[in-house]
Design a protein that fits this description.
Elements (H helix, E strand, L loop, with lengths): L6 H17 E8 L5 H11 L5 H13 L15 H6 L6 E6 L4 E6 L7 H8 L4 E7 L6 H12 L4 E7 L8 H17 L5 E5 L23 H7 L13 E2 L2 E3 L11 E5 L4 E3 L3 E5 L3 E10 L2 E3 L1 E3 L3 E6 L10 E4 L6 E11 L5 E2 L3 E6 L2 E15 L4 E4 L3 E2 L4 E13 L11 E5 L6 E7 L22
Parallel strand pairs: 1-3, 1-4, 4-5, 5-6
Antiparallel strand pairs: 2-3, 7-16, 8-9, 9-15, 10-14, 11-12, 11-16, 12-13, 12-15, 17-23, 17-25, 18-22, 19-20, 19-24, 20-21, 20-23, 24-25
């Protein structure tokens, strides 16, 4: 177990984790229609010198053809023809850029209600979400919806970007009122950290460079915050989880009896000598070797990809999970979770599906759909019977085989799953095991059952 690590090994693990955290950040943008998400992303890419010359030339040409004198930076992300024609974002647009301080993976998600599933997809792996608000309109229904999705997905950092400050004369009271309303709402959902920044994506105020029009604001620009926000956790603080992806059996003259288990460490730290339990079988053994890309090491941590060898020859295959014997998750065939339905075909009680959890896929049946969540006001509709596309609700499933499923609030990696159509392999639903929202942040008003916040 991680407590058996020497101080030197713990320091090494922490150093590697900090290095990874400062070198890459995954973040998503969200906001209502016409709040300026794509313009913000385009400004971020343009002003950070992350746009190639031919890309900028193509944007300038497209802008001129639409009668615009200045280049429309939103076109740097709205790549689909329908997006350009309608001036909206439809699909999740992934962009990769870097500054001297950090590398970024950006998911620009749609703002329309009917594309809520796209935001869920883009934000599911994000460590930070940027929620845009039009300074003229303030916090609207879709703003609250995006805050709720970020809370459901346990996104650890949320940035409120109050955009179009140039259209309200850069007035500090306007920004302060919006920031207070949003922060109170998001904190009540359990969002752990909220940072509010006044910007003008069109003019470039406080996006990459500090604004000369808002000297009353002394905080970071959007890029400065993205470059410095702490992300990642110390892996030694989390129980180890190792989903087996592939069993290596060369059976050669050189390695006649070799049996290795390859995969990516989902969380925590593994060390040679650790006692581990194989789930769902419950059999135990000990780690005798850790191969990290051809180098034998004594310790490895998430998210490294390694091959493990064990002291005993056990029946282990793809989909099994190795965990410390003293911190192994319980296995269950009864799963209660919050889900976002992604497919156009509704999810109904009685549907038979495949449930994919890490590297394991099992058959399952939808036993009940207790409620459907209305993100606009966090009310819930009891016993809806089905979930349509973009809808979020609670489900109860029964699986054909036991699963070693963590609660989503304990591990976003081993607490999440997908529901798949067994007929054609189509992804139907994204699920998060356990409770819906996190515990409200300290000082936030506690949620009340009659408001539908705890269902």
């Amino acid at each position: 177990m991680t407590s058996n690590l020497t101080s030197e090994e713990q320091a090494a693990a922490a150093a590697v984790e900090r290095s990874a955290a400062t070198s890459q950040l995954r973040f998503a943008t969200a906001g209502s229609v016409d709040d300026g998400k794509s313009t913000l992303v385009g400004r971020l890419l343009h002003d950070s010198k992350s746009v190639l010359a031919d890309q900028l030339e193509a944007v300038e040409h497209a802008s001129r053809s639409r009668g615009q004198e200045a280049p429309d930076l939103a076109l740097l992300t709205d790549g689909l023809r329908a997006e350009r024609e309608q001036g909206i974002t439809i699909d999740v647009a992934y962009r990769y850029f870097a500054t001297p301080k950090r590398r970024f993976i950006l998911a620009d998600t749609p703002g329309h209600v009917q594309y809520t599933r796209n935001m869920v997809t883009g934000a599911s792996t994000a460590e930070l979400a940027v929620v845009l608000v039009d300074a003229r309109n303030g916090v609207v229904e879709q703003t609250r919806r995006h805050a709720a999705v970020a809370a459901l997905l346990r996104v650890p950092h949320v940035v409120l970007a109050v955009n179009k400050m140039d259209l309200v004369d850069y007035a500090e009271p306007v920004f302060a009122a919006i920031a207070e309303e949003f922060t109170t709402y998001a904190a009540s959902l359990g969002v752990p950290e909220i940072t509010a920044i006044p910007i003008s994506a069109l003019a470039g105020d406080n996006v990459v460079t500090a604004s000369a029009n808002m000297n009353w604001y002394g905080g970071p620009t959007v890029l400065e915050h993205l470059e410095t926000v702490p992300v990642g956790t110390d892996p030694s603080q989390d129980p180890a989880r190792f989903p087996v992806q592939y069993v290596i059996r060369p059976q050669t003259a050189e390695h006649p009896d070799y049996r290795g288990y390859a995969g990516q460490i989902a969380s925590g730290v593994l060390r040679v000598g650790d006692a581990v339990t194989v789930l769902p079988s419950g059999r135990t053994s000990a780690i005798t070797g850790i191969d990290a890309l051809g180098t034998m090491v004594d310790v490895a941590w998430a998210p490294q990809s390694v091959t493990l060898t064990l002291a005993d020859d056990l029946d282990i295959s793809r989909g099994d999970l190795l965990a410390p014997s003293d911190h192994a998750p319980e296995t269950t065939r009864d799963v209660e979770a919050t889900v976002c339905h992604l497919h156009d075909r509704p999810l109904r009680v009685g549907d038979r599906v495949l449930l994919k959890h890490t590297t394991r896929t099992v058959k399952a049946i939808i036993k009940d759909i207790p409620s459907r969540l209305t993100l606009a006001d966090l009310s819930h509709h009891p016993a809806p019977g089905e979930l349509a596309a973009n809808e979020i609700g609670r489900v109860v499933l029964r699986t054909s085989e036991p699963l070693a499923l963590d609660a989503y609030d304990a591990s976003r990696r081993t607490g999440s799953f997908l529901l798949i159509d067994p007929a054609d392999g189509t992804t139907l639903t994204a699920g998060m095991a356990g409770d819906s929202f996190a515990t409200p942040a300290k000082g936030a008003e506690a949620a009340r059952d009659d408001e539908g916040w705890d269902f």
